[in-house]
Design brief:
This protein is α/β, with parallel strands linked by helices and 152 residues long. It is built from 6 helices and 5 strands. It has a 5-stranded parallel β-sheet with strand order 3-2-1-4-5. The longest helix is centred in the N-terminal third of the chain and has 15 residues. It is globular and about 40 Å long. It starts with 6 loop residues before the first helix and ends with a strand.
Amino acid sequence: MPHQVTPQLDLWRGDFGDKYISRNAPDEASIKVLTRMWATILRPLHVHPKRILEVGSNVGLNLRALRRITQSELFAVEPNAMARKRMIDDGVLPDSNIVEAFAASLPFDDASMDFVFTSGVLIHIAPADLLSSCKEIQRVSSKYVMCCEYYS
């Protein structure tokens, strides 16, 4: 758990987060685009990471794409219960690899993941928790960290 529950976190755990799932439902076209993107990202690594963690996975669009191109063991951190259930129901990951947690307090050992990433998540973290979130992401990664963000 983060040091404190923030309005942003409450938003994602509640009705707003549930509605986000409907607005961003998985479809074959978006997964194909993400699969091409991830193939491009992973290509220079030559050897795929053994363990990949997505922090803030929602329904696992990135993880669905990664499953198509790598044998890496995949993990997800997601605060929204409905999104976690959707990943389990859709068979994206086994429930043991989907964790209710938050970027500011990741329940993994130091350097336990080879590759840790966020995509469109850091922009939604409370400014007071941003540095601790980035430190946590770095702490659990043994090698690679990637953050895909946008701004408005």
